[in-house]
Each structure stands twice: as C-alpha cells, then as structure tokens.
Amino acid sequence: MADATDEYCSFVMEQYEKARQHCKDPLILVEQRLDFSKWVPDGFGTGDCLIISDKILQIIDFKYGLGILVEAENNPQMMCYALGALDTYDGIYDVESVTMTIFQPRRNNISTFIISKEELLAWAENFLKPTAKLAYNGEGEFHAGDHCQFCKVKAACHKRAEYNMELAAYDFEQPATLEDAEIAAILPRIDDLVAWAGDIKEYALQKAMSGTEYPGFKVVEGRSVRKYTDENTVASVVTNAGYDPYEKKILGITAMTSLLGKKKFEELLAGFITKPPGKPTLVPDTDKRPAMNTAKDDFIEE
Fold it and tell me: Who has the most CB within 10 Å: 28, 40, 42, 64?
C-alpha cells in the first residue's frame, strides 16, 4: 500500500510541475469536498486531487482496488466531480477544458479523459440533471448491471433479481449439454450471478441477526480457529522451557524491497526474480491483457 501511495504522490507532483509550465501559480487541492447539487439533488463527493491552472482543470482519482479496472473516459463519477470543481473555481481560473485521470497502480492503469467545458456542461444539463431528478424522485426505470455492486439496496432489488434469474431459462443444465452460443450468453452473467447470491446471503444474515425468521434456516455460530491470548507471554514461556517458539522464512518480495530499498534490491536480487505465467482465466475481449495461445493456436500452420 505504501508503494502504491508513493507512486500516486509522484504522479500528482509530476502533473503539478507540468501545470507550472503554463501557469505561474497553479492551485493544488487534496481531499476537496465538491458540491454538484446544482445538477444532482444533494450531490457531493470528495476529490482526491485537483490541480487548477489557467484554462485547465485537472482531477485525479486514486483507485487502490485490484478487482475492477476503472476507465476515465466518460466516467460519470469523475464528470460529476468536475462539475463540482467548475462550479467553485471556473470564475477564478476561466477553465476551458477538464482533464480527468484515474490512477490505479495495482492494475498498472493510468486512464485519462479530456473534455471541453462546453461538452461537460451540455452533458450535465441534457443528461445528468433530468436523470438525477428522476432518480431522486424515485421515478424512471431500474437497470441491473455492473453498477449494482455499489447500490445500497442491491440485495433486495427486484430488477436485479429478475436480471439474474433470467439464467433459469437454461434450467441449470450440465455444461456439456449446452451449445457454444448458450455458453457465450451465460458467461457475461456468471460473475453478476455469483455476486448477487453472495449479497442475498449477507443481507439475509444481517436481517436474521436482527430478528427476522426465514423458514428452514437458523443462525448458528460459525467455525473459528484457536489463537493465543498473548503471543509475547507464550513466546516467553516456550523460550524459558528451552524451545524456539519462532518459525523462520525468507521475506516476501514486497517486504524485502522495503528492507533493502528499491535500488539495493535491484542491485542484489534482480537476477533472482522470476514471474511465472498466471493461471489461465476467461475474460471479456475488452480486457486489456493479451490473449494466451490456446490448443487451437498450436495447430495453426505458419
């Protein structure tokens, strides 16, 4: 985590230095509250970093997560933050364009999207504002999708249930009996289905802990693992008895890098580091990773 935040800090300072090349005194703000309630009722957020200079507003969002690759292009969260920043600082710096960057070091992802102020404001007035009004009033249509993972009512939402239960049309047949086209239709939905099932279980557990009774189910104490009440005392007792209470193993690469420093680590151990191939994983073709060679490729004549 320290390495990731150091990389983020370096990136921010690089962008600040670039801003200084065309602006004598750019403004840099960290963890800035941004109010975009002009377009979204009660809408606000916290911008990780804002760099504001003559005619250019830059917003940088630090994403530490590894599981989901986040892109900056037409990212609604970033665009809302940009609106909040514009509402406060446009009159001071006469902004003409907005640069939005997602910095996601654990995915080696730096995604940047540039939009003019006019385009952003047009999106806000023509799409964001009317859509937000419908949502705020509890109107409009529900749509299930990847965004459900961030929703407060994701476990109890009927639309999400309908979306996932559409897979019941396949009657849970054995994989070998499904056509390739059917499997291709199921694959994009599997992760959502598994996540939905997990959300239902967690939601039901919390409700049951609060007193809700589900026929055929009960709350029990789960498995636990024994642990020491005081590790220092245990180590002392075992040592006094003539035994060595500690196990020894080599530090992991991250811990070893912290111990030696990056430069010394490379100097001493660069020749002893290897990265074995990862386990094959089936992902959508929009994933940025290059495709692996498969058995089909092995039989293609050159």
Answer: 40
Type of residue found at 115: I
* Cα-Cα-Cα-Cα dihedral sign, residues 101, 102, 105, 108: negative
Q: Please, which residues have CB within 8 angstroms of residue 111's CB and are 6 or more apart in sequence?
A: 70, 71, 72, 73, 101, 102, 104
Length of the chain: 302
DSSP 104: E
Whole-angstrom CA distances from 131 to 102, 124, 125, 149 are 24, 10, 10, 20
Q: 79 with 100: CB under 8 angstroms?
A: yes
Q: Are 47 and 27 in contact (CB under 8 A)?
A: no
- Give the pLDDT confidence of 198-230 residue by residue, as tens digits: 888 898 999 999 999 999 999 988 888 999 999
**Alpha-carbon gap, residue 176 to 153, rounded angstroms:** 36
Q: Which amino acid is at 77?
A: Q
Compute φ and ψ for 178, nearest 5 degrees.
Answer: -90, 145
**Among the listed residues 8, 18, 108, 30, the one whose alpha carbon sits nearest the alpha carbon of residue 56:** 18
Return the pLDDT at 60.
Answer: 96
Compute the distance between CA of residue 259 and CA of residue 269 in angstroms, rounded to an integer.
13
CA distance 299 to 302: 9
